[in-house]
Amino acid sequence: MYEKIKRNFIENFVNKDGSFKNGTQTAYTISLYFELIDEETANKSFQFIIEDIETRDWHISTGFIGLTYLFPVLTKFDRSDIAYKLLLNESFPSWINMLNNGATTMWERWNGWTPDKGFFDPLMNSFNHTSLGVIGEWFYSGIGGIIPEEPGFKKMIIKPSLGGGLNYAKVSYFSIYGKIISEWKIEDEKFSLKVRIPVNTSAKVLIPKIADNKNISRPYKTELVDENEGYFIFEVGSGDYNFVYNI
Asked: Other CB atoms closer than 10 Å to residue 141's CB: what's the count?
């Protein structure tokens, strides 16, 4: 059924250059997240998201459904730099813009209150809402990099996304197998990543390549299995690990 839906979707909505016949940030994002496009076309389609975000001066144009998947897709395609740009943007619409306008809770709407128009229609203007709060999930899966490779975190990926001027982050998640921890730090020209992998699980740990240096101080019972342009990839079983390398 999936293959049939995918084939029909491509035939009816996707142009040869990877653009959509009715392309929005949400349309591209959901299609890429649920892999409704083949890999070659997906890379082309992803560029249209980037172009649209840049055209809007690094702003989001999705509703809450598209927003749920936008940041994971940016991370999947190794463009967490853009995710940080969106997160830290201070002009409307943005999270920091809400904060600068007095928000102490998560609003339902970007324009729940604006300096020129005041409060939006109270019939649809909650000031304690979950819709825009999906960014919180990305703090765990993006900044901390805790990602399930299999449902339930039997196998997982630890892939922290650096950027945004951050030099330290620590996140934890209580899975059904136990507590998962990802804690990274940039200090004294060194990058370190501490992880905790619960009993009866395993993980691929991806160490960001901040510098061209393979001399990683790695813990006992870890194996460097692969590397790509952006990461060194290790496989580990359950336990506590601390990876360090000079930058």
From this structure: 20
CATH number among 2.40.10.220, 2.60.420.10, 3.20.20.60, 3.40.50.1000, domain 144-246: 2.60.420.10
pLDDT tens per residue across all 247 residues of the chain = 999 999 999 999 999 999 998 899 999 999 999 999 998 899 999 999 999 999 999 999 999 999 999 999 999 999 999 999 999 999 999 999 999 999 999 999 999 999 999 999 999 999 999 889 999 999 999 999 999 999 999 999 999 999 999 999 999 999 999 999 999 999 998 999 999 999 999 999 999 888 766 677 777 778 888 988 889 999 999 999 999 988 8
- SS3 category, 193: strand
Residue 117 burial (CB < 10 Å; 0-12/13-18/19+)?
Answer: exposed
What is the Cα 186 distance to its own chain's centre?
20
State the Cα–Cα distance between residues 157 and 21, nearest whole angstrom: 35
